[in-house]
Amino acid sequence: MQNLMGALAEQVDFTRTIIVFALIMARIMAIVVLVPFLGGKNAPMEVKMGVGVTLTMLLWPTVLANLDPDAGLPLNPLGFLLMMMKETFVGLVIGFVASKVFYVVEIAGQLIDILRGANQIQLQVPEIEERSSAFGSLQFQLLLALFLALDLHRPFIAALFESFVAVPINDFPHFQAGFGPFVDYIARITADILVIAVLLAMPIGIVTLIIETGFGLINRVAPQINAYFMAMPAKVLGGCLVFFLSIDLILEQMLGHSVRMLEHVDAVIELME
Length: 273
Prior knowledge:
- 77% of the residues lie in helices and 3% in strands.
- It is built from nine helices and two strands; from the N terminus they run ααααββααααα.
- The radius of gyration is 24 Å and the shape is elongated.
- It has one domain (2-272).
- Strands 1-2 form a two-stranded antiparallel ribbon.
- The two termini are 45 Å apart.
- By secondary structure, it is mostly helical.
């Protein structure tokens, strides 16, 4: 047994193996914390750690096999800390881009509830550990179910594998296209959140505007009718009716934005290469 352990120790560099495992897990955990379909903010720590360790173990042999044997790994504390910070940065960037579409549909739902006059109703969204309006929570959960039902998490995990090729664990991002285009791309993705949310909320917004205009005209014609209080339930019911009548279109839009999110993840990984 001692001879076997000695032979194994000669073939395996345990220090190198542990460092590789830790660096992979730093990137993975940063993503797991941000991305709702892998864990999110409010998932129990045991669940997040389980997902992180599982993905790390799946990636670990591939990354270790493709790593140049002569490649330098940080063996001193300062170098290891810098590499851990780099891996966390890469993971946070990928996680932010991947979670964008979920924030978009949630903001769109909040805008819908503001237009319907029902934004006082607040519900807890467990995946992001925040309170949201009724439609915001509904659209968030709807997208999460759609994303997992269509196996869109698989191409994301494949992109995660590719990120370790584009940005190896023993090297820093090169930003071959320049750091400016990378920052510009992230800024445009951030700006698109509000733009897309407004576009998603626009159909119900138009209906509520028509209802408001109609009751405004009624109020002008017959001031004795309390049109303001009559308009409130009409807007709530009208918004719900339009939402459920256009559910196919909404799901199609959610799917399209989810696919574009995966394209954004691939693009941002290429920009860091």
